[in-house]
Amino acid sequence: MKQTRSSTLQLLRLPFSFFLMPVYWFALSQVVDKDWGRALLIFVILHGLVYPASNGYNSYMDRDSTPIGGLEHPPQPTRTLFRVTLIMDLAALALGCFIGLYFVAGLAVYILASRAYSYRGIRLKKYPIIGWLTVISCQGALIFFLVYQGSHKAGIWADTLDVAPAMLAASLLLGGFYPLTQIYQHEADRQDGVRTLSLVLGYRGSFIFTGLIYGVAFFVLAYYFLSTLQIREFQVLATCMLPVIVYFLIWAVKVWRDPAAANFNNTMRMNILASICTNAGFIAVLVMG
């Protein structure tokens, strides 16, 4: 029983929520009239329930024996893990009722999409483009929308068109980075019959793709921040992102010379650095607002 609880907790990968946190801070930073109580509840729902449940369900379906995001030696999942993820999803939907029905509907879309992504009977992750689009649209634009709308003062429905470029930028930032999170899993994915975008692109192609999408993402970010007269905020955000760009270029050169450099340890270093810098950047924007 103790071993089952330990493996379940590990496979929920609670610290992994930190990697998805920048979208929350970005969206919250753009809310003018914030309801901090609702914002806190949304944070708990997403990072304490929805994201870990999605991680756990993915592990339950994949039954990984090789490294996965945040775990170098993942334990084998049990039926308890499946039940816990279901309870967490139901709890998230119940708590979402305190935000609004639109929020619950959005959460339901996210949960169903994450299940379809992993479920063996559908397995959207098998398809490189569809899987990629599912991830970036849900973890990017959809989450941004839910945080942005849900964190406004009760009774206020904000104009989403005003932040449409920001929603696009959130998706692009995730979309550019996502292939690099899969780059060390090529052999495991191939054996599992999964054709991720990173596997299709290859080692060098994944870095080229990331560079291109990140370039577009920063162009959209620049347009949005400058058009909303958040010039200082954009300068601070861009400064915070500089270490990520430097590490990305150094790592790309290493992989170009030796594909073995596209390993779990280097990927985790990239994940951690990118998350720290991006979270710091958007939190700074929030504080400056």
UniProtKB/TrEMBL annotation:
Its main location: membrane. The chain crosses the membrane at residues 12-30, 36-53, 90-113, 129-148, 160-181, 201-224, 236-256, 268-288. It is a multi-pass membrane protein. It holds the Pfam family UbiA. It is found in: Membrane. It comes from Puia dinghuensis. GO terms for cellular component: membrane. InterPro entries: UbiA_prenyltransferase (IPR000537). This is Prenyltransferase. One of its GO terms (molecular function) is transferase activity, transferring alkyl or aryl (other than methyl) groups. Keywords: Membrane, Transmembrane, Transmembrane helix.
